[in-house]
Automatic annotation (TrEMBL):
This is Carbohydrate ABC transporter permease. It is a multi-pass membrane protein. Belongs to the binding-protein-dependent transport system permease family. It comes from Halalkalibacter kiskunsagensis. The keyword Membrane applies. It is found in: Cell membrane. Residues 1-46 are annotated as: Disordered. Keywords: Cell membrane, Membrane, Transmembrane, Transmembrane helix, Transport.
Length: 339
């Protein structure tokens, strides 16, 4: 037997075929992919607490908002389409309440509503400029930090801490025609008594004066906060450019107070449109109906007399709310418009 035949007859050791080799390769790759695949994220028990925490913080305010603002507003809007006097069932009347105050000139409520709106507008036009200008200049003076500036800041702010009833009683004591302190001193000067609370236009002057004295402190504090945000280097640069005090006021102070000014004007206008207690307590809406403002008239229609008309009063409130919303939007657009 030849050597070649012997080599051919020797059994060879088993070898792994390509299929097995490729199987091992695929198995290794699969194992690696399994190791690299992220595991599904298990829910942490603390996740729901983190999501719930913000709602817990806002829930008291949200509850207050729903109970005392959202629900009464929607319910009042619903009442405005009904005839109701609190003692009987509501009767749906559609737009009749709105017609009686907006376009039905034969209705008595039409004349009274717009007369009250006129009185409200007069008060707003007379009071708002003073309630913006006077606090502004008081804030500028106090911001200059003269001697005793903290005392004067507290002095001007103190009346705003009083209730409106207290304020009105103080001014009735001062302005009473026969026994008022102001008329007493006018008599000592040889002047006649002034009917501050019983005759126009003195009634408007009285109402505006007591409102100014009562509320300028709040607006003054707001302007002081705004003045504190104006950088000192702006005034120094204006001085270097040769600007005097008046020029600094118009070109540095007023632009720097743009935000606080818009807020003060809008909020003061809304507050003036919602005036009620001053004319109710000081003049009773008189003389005649001269100072019967809109909120006071709504109160009289809805809550006084033998047959209160809650539906009509609700319709008046809705109309007033729409007017105030329109005025606020117009003021905001005008004051936020870039020069």
């Amino acid at each position: 037997m030849s050597v070649a035949n012997i080599k051919n007859n020797v059994p060879h050791p088993p070898t792994k075929n390509n299929g097995e080799a490729s199987g091992l390769g695929m198995s290794g790759t699969t194992n690696n992919n399994k190791n690299n695949t992220p595991r599904p994220r298990t829910k942490n028990k603390g996740d729901w607490k983190e999501k719930l925490t913000p709602f817990l913080f806002i829930s008291p305010h949200m509850l207050f908002f729903i109970i005392f603002l959202a629900y009464p507003t929607l319910y009042g809007f619903y009442i405005s389409f009904n005839s109701w006097n609190f003692f009987t069932d509501m009767q749906f009347v559609g737009l009749q309440n709105y017609a009686n105050i907006l376009w039905n000139s034969d209705s008595l409520y039409f004349d009274y509503f717009w007369s009250a709106f006129r009185a409200t507008l007069i008060f707003t036009v007379l009071s708002v400029p003073f309630l913006v200008i006077i606090p502004l200049f008081l804030a500028i003076g106090i911001n200059a930090r003269p001697f005793g500036h903290n005392f004067f800041r507290a002095l001007f702010y103190a009346p705003s801490l009083l209730s409106v009833v207290t304020v009105v009683l103080i001014w009735i004591w001062l302005l009473d025609t026969n026994a008022g302190l102001v008329n007493y001193y006018l008599q000592t000067l040889g002047l006649d008594n002034i009917p501050w609370l019983t005759r126009a236009p003195w009634v408007w002057i009285s109402l505006v004066m007591m409102t100014i004295w009562w509320t300028i402190g709040t607006n003054m504090i707001l302007f002081l906060a705004g003045l504190g945000e104006i950088a000192d280097h702006l005034y120094e640069a204006a001085k270097i450019d040769g600007a005097n005090k008046i020029q600094q006021f118009f070109h540095v102070t007023l632009p720097g107070l743009k935000g606080p000014m818009a807020f003060v004007v809008i909020m003061t206008t809304l507050a003036s449109f919602n005036v009620m207690a001053q004319p109710q307590l000081a003049t009773g809406g008189g003389p005649g109906y001269e100072t019967r403002v809109l909120i006071l008239y709504i109160y009289e229609v809805g809550f006084t007399g033998g047959n209160p008309r809650a539906g009509l009063a609700a319709a008046m409130s809705v109309v007033l709310g729409m007017i105030l919303l329109s005025i606020s939007l117009i003021q905001f657009k005008l004051m936020s418009k870039e020069k």
